[in-house]
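WARN retry 2 of 3 for item q-0093 after timeout on previous attempt; input resubmitted unchanged.
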Amino acid sequence: MKLQINRMLLVFLLAGGFICGMPENLRGEVVEPAPNILIITVDNLGYGDLKSFNNSSPILTPNLDKLADQGARLKNFYTASPTCTASRAALLTGRIPQRNKLHEQLVGLEGNYGIGLPRSEIILPQVVKKSPHGYATAAFGKWNIGFAPGSRPTERGFDEFLGIASGNADHFTHVYAGRKDLYHNTTAVNRHGEYSTDLFADAAIDYIREKSSQETPWMVYLPFDAPHHPGDRNIDPGEPNIWKAPDYAFDAYGLSPDEKDPKKRFNAVVTAIDRAIGRLMESLEELGIANNTFVFFYSDNGAFYPYLDIQSNAPFNGAGVTLWEGGIHVPAIARWPGKIKANSTISTRLWSPDLFVAVANLAGAELPQDRFIDGKNPLPVLTGESVHSPHASLFFKYQSHAALIWGDYKILREKPEDPWMLFNLREDPAEKVNLAESQPALVRKMAEPHRLIEAEINSYLEREEKKLNFQSQIK
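OK item q-0093 returned
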């Protein structure tokens, strides 16, 4: 009887194609392995800071240039919020800040170590964990959406975490407001002197090597905390608050680490990120998994210091924490060999909540059915199956700022009492020519959907609050 069972098992394995080569199903069709997923974000990098998007940029980024050459440059990609906390929450929930209720920047120890993103929100690793393929999940870098017990990464679906709880700790000391801010899982650790960009990249590489050796598909979220510079309260007493980078990043420009020019120092910070991403991509190649890894890179929001000629949002106007194009129109690159056309440009409008849906689709996981997801599946656009955006319009609101993009046009105001401005983004991406006075009918046409979308969101939040209250009462 035992011999018969073993023979049956051997026949099944042979039929399934597991003895050698690419796995096949019982009908002999080739079954591709589940793709690995790597989501990389950088902090406050401007659209004009990268040569792939602004050829006149002086910043040396050979690895990001190569990544773009191997994949697609997304020329019309938006972040759902122009500030760090809210942009991360939108990515991880697939829901705009007004819907996931984390629409303001978390600041101070009270904010960063508080609950942050409501625990009723389902975030990306929790979705991926429902995949039938058994994904491993990890996050390495800047968390910034709440670090109270119950809100930490490994308590919200990630198997492993190494990173900072806050938004702008010192890159070498990892101190935030006088306390160590670096954690491995939920335990504070001291890695004083290790540059955060390299620290997080190395952790990601080690994790990827480990899971790949186990033939386990993985999803890694790698939110670098650079090039955002630390806040003054996070710098050791007596030290200047300057852009910090390792010596090798200054060497690339023939500069001394003592260079005083803030623009040159900023350039070195970005080059350090580029080198870390290059090492990461090389690891994928060495492991033989590059072709089966979906890589998406983008900036969480626009540059904060274009006005000081340190950073660039060119060709756009405005900066981070605004809804001008410079605050929300960000550089993005997607790479998936054989699926995303190499050295291509995608001009179709997409935004950061779409990654939530993309990752779920890549992992073969079901999206949450009990809530509204603002993201839409971008994979048909990324793989060239469609040139049409899955969005009719994009709604934005941050503090007193409001905007709506629909087709070629955008309405924008900085205060609720201000009249709407109107711009044709195709003809005027820098938003220099306000068309509101000459086209009042178009302003009214666009203002109405903005009003209706905002009313729909408020109505939705009321229903969701009632549902949560009812669920808490019956527990």
